[in-house]
Amino acid sequence: MVLSCGGTEQVEAPQATALPEEPALIPLPAQVSWESKAYVIPQQNTICYTGEGKEASQWLEALLSKAGVTVATQASGDCGNWKIEQDASLEGTLGEEGYQLSITDDGVLLKAASQAGLFYGIQTLRQMFPPEIEKQQLESQVVLRQALIEDQPEFAWRGTMVDVARSFFGLDYLKRHVDRMAMYKMNRLHLHLSDDQGWRIEIKGWPKLTEVGGKASVRRGRAGFLTQEEYKDLQDYALARNIIIIPEIDMPGHIYAALMSYPELNCDDYTNLTPKRATPPEMFQDYNVGWSKFCLENPEIYEFVNDVIGEMAEITKGPWIHIGGDEIEDPRYKEFVVKADSIVQTYGKTTIGWEEVTKAEVSSSLISQRWHGKVESVVKDIKTIHSLCSQLYLDHANIPGQENTNNWCKKDGVSLEDTYSFNSDDPNVIGVEAAVWSEFVLSDEMLDNRFWPRAIAAAEIGWTSGEKRNYDEFKQRLGKHGDRLRALDINFYRTPGVDWG
Length: 501
Ligand code: TNX
What we know:
seven-stranded mixed β-sheet, Hex-like_dom2, 15 helices, 2 domains, single chain, disordered N terminus, alpha/beta, binds ligand TNX, Beta_hexosaminidase_sua/sub, Glyco_hydro_20_cat, elongated, beta-N-acetylhexosaminidase activity
């Protein structure tokens, strides 16, 4: 109703609400049916939740407040234009992380068996709001397209790995990274916390690891480390977004940062190697791999391994500890792996290792992370995380010739399409993980450029089943995320062939 100058009331002609286009959801849900009808979000909203829906209702409240509408929340069943229903008995139909979202004339109903499922339903809704919401309060009314979505992931493991060891990325960056992963429904963050060039986690029983090893880095890289308090802070931040942290202490190779901090864990004089390597306590700033190792005949190293794994297990809420195990030859390698695996289990955790560890008689619960696909496990039916370097090593170039990238696995780089092209019928594969090694990734902007948008392709191959995926169609949906990625200030690589808007 509008008042005219003369004071007489005029009735505004009702305006047909324009139908919003079908939102470009990533990852593509298992089932969507879009209606040719709109739901206009009213000025006043009520959210009602059941079960453990409180956290989800808070995420929704935050989203709606940014849309500039008012919202009240109630812990009760049948009320409100936004309903959130958590009900464990839905697991049979929706799975552990699945959800059902329906948008009708009456409002929005979100159902899931778990908090994770509800969180993902809200991430889906988020992608239906205009991209500016990522940056600022919206000024105009939000109109949703009516729909029925039933969704659940193909794989339980949808991860990324950040190498914070070669070059350090701290709490602020890692929290932003968690936010971005969560938006695309990823749920595992693997931190490569130690390597030849640096040690990045406080270990109270071995303080020189961070006093000495924490100050080292690859050439021109950043040094630093996470205190245990910061690690726990990051972990809680991630868990609130359904992301579990997996700490990796890489052993018995890739261990020079520990050796420079505690030279008694060495037997070798590295000056005898060709080319010459650093010798403790000098730092190693170069790029070569496969040269350093613990003194495997010295029993003291197992005290170290026990203490470090013990402290990591104590501060880690997730069920896994990653022991590395890559790129090292030693007659005592298998013996080491078996011992380290059993130490992890002593602390109530499950071991993960790079695929080489499966040359040893490891426990059948161990999870192997496949990166070159050359090792045939000696233990049957080992669960596997797919991180094949030709598809998921995002330290490789986005496009042939990109500077500051590794190229040993694929000379022309790992394209968006390479990442997207994953398909597996191996029943032991539990999911995928996209990794960025940081020998040449020296700033936040560079790390953004390596992860995004290829990590979005990794998110989709982890969530959406192979039959539903089509690369050309994905590129079109991805382009529609350009505005959102820009609103989030992500320095993403503008992949040619994608219309970024
Ligand atoms: C191999 S793959 C490594 C890392 C390097 C990376 C560089 C694997 C388990 N180890 O130590 O950083 O290549 O791309």
